[in-house]
Amino acid sequence: MDETMKECPFCGESPVLAYDMPLRGCVTVCCVNSACRIKPRATENSLREALKAWNTRAEEGIEKKI
Predict the structure, then answer these.
(1) Left if phi > 0, otherwise alpha if psi is -120 to 50, otherwise beta: which for 6?
(2) Cα dihedral sign for 62, 63, 64, 66?
(3) Number of C-alpha atoms within 13 angstroms, CB side, residue 65?
């Protein structure tokens, strides 16, 4: 698994990783840049899934049609 986190797709800053609820096992990757107006976040039940959700970008799932 590639554990690198992509930059925030809206402001370009590096995201942070937080374990929101240790007893439930929730992991969040989020942008904490105060200038970012969108403040995206990805919260999942595992580190692997949180990173996958954060690193997924809309254009990766769209096929280009000519």
Answers:
(1) beta
(2) negative
(3) 1
Sign of CA dihedral 13, 59, 28, 48: negative
pLDDT in tens, 10-61: 999 999 998 876 667 789 999 999 999 999 999 998 889 999 999 998 876 5
Question: Tokens 């990783």 belong to which residue?
Answer: 17
CA angle in degrees (0–180, nearest 5) for 10-12-41: 55
Starting from the edge strand earliest in sequence, which strands make up the sheet with 26-30, in order? 16-21, 26-30, 41-44
